[in-house]
């Protein structure tokens, strides 16, 4: 007779021969106790947010959001397009006050008529890094990783999470925390300046309120805080997001004031 016993996180086959029963249970226990690899966690994360097919169908995203930086509200409109095109516009009083763009190879930023065609290396790197994170921080980090490993299972905010430490090709490092139940990305920690040319500090990005956009889950709420002090730095709320909105490709180009200048 063959039966199935379930308990203590394992499934054993009860066979007619006791020796085989012990072997079957031992093998099941061994498989259950083996930690998940980076590849397995990332695969589960990809499935949790909607799968590769749905993700690949999204070629661009347009969002409207509010960023609260220590009580100062910044209304933002952002356009993103694969693989690494980005335009962010900051509005105040219904007027455009600042634009930041990554063209795929260069960046520019500034107020209308006062465009900085050659931002310094720190500002350019920050804009490029943001442009490269089209899918989500974890998937984008894996795509540019030089080294990655599972640092363990930790408990944060009352929930268990897998910690994946990633070193990217440019030498930057970060820890990514994937919820052990939902496999959604819940936190990212890295040492960096909040804004270019500011002192680096350990900053935690907490992601929350996942909602579907064309079959893929994206976080609609996030907070950045300084880990050592717990001080909130920014809170971001996405008000609207839509995939594959037709946008003139020239919005990602250099402004007329910058054309003809070498980057």
Q: Uncertain regions: pLDDT < 50 for 5+ in a row?
A: 1-32
Structural class: alpha+beta
CATH class of the largest domain: Mainly Beta
* Average pLDDT level: 87
**Using only CA atoms, what is the Rg?**
23 Å
CATH fold assignment of the largest domain? outer membrane lipoprotein receptor (LolB), chain A
| Widest sheet: strand ordering | 8-7-6-5-4-3-15-14-13-12-11-10-9
Largest sheet: 13 strands, antiparallel
Name the helix and strand elements from N-terminus to C-terminus, one letter apiece. EEHHHEEEEEEHHEEEEEEE
Proportion of residues in helical segments: 10-25%
| Number of domain modules | 2
In the CATH classification, which architecture of the largest domain applies? Clam
Task: Please identify which CATH superfamily of the largest domain we are dealing with.
Answer: Lipoprotein localisation LolA/LolB/LppX
- How many separate helices? 5
């Amino acid at each position: 007779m063959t039966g199935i016993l379930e308990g203590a996180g394992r499934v054993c086959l009860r066979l007619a021969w006791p020796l085989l029963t012990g072997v079957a249970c031992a093998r099941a226990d061994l498989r259950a106790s083996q930690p998940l690899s980076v590849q397995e966690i990332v695969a589960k994360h990809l499935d949790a947010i909607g799968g590769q097919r749905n993700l690949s169908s999204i070629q661009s995203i347009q969002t409207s959001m509010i960023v609260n930086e220590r009580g100062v509200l910044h209304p933002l409109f952002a356009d993103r397009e694969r693989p690494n095109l980005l335009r962010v516009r900051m509005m105040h009083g219904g007027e455009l006050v600042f634009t930041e763009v990554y063209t795929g190879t260069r960046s520019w930023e500034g107020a209308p008529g006062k465009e900085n065609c050659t931002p310094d290396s720190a500002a350019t790197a920050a804009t490029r890094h943001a442009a490269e994170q089209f899918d989500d921080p974890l998937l984008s980090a894996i795509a540019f990783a030089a080294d990655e490993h599972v640092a363990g299972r930790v408990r944060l905010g009352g929930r268990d999470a897998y910690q994946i430490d990633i070193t990217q090709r440019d030498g930057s490092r970060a820890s990514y925390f994937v919820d052990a139940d939902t496999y959604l990305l819940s936190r990212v920690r890295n040492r960096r300046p909040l804004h270019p040319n500011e002192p680096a500090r350990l900053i935690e990005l907490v992601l929350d309120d996942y909602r579907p956009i064309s079959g893929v889950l994206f976080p609609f709420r996030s907070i950045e805080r300084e880990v050592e002090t717990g001080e909130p730095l920014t809170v971001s709320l996405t008000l609207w997001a839509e995939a594959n909105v037709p946008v003139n490709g020239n919005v990602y180009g250099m402004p007329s004031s910058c054309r003809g200048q070498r980057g």
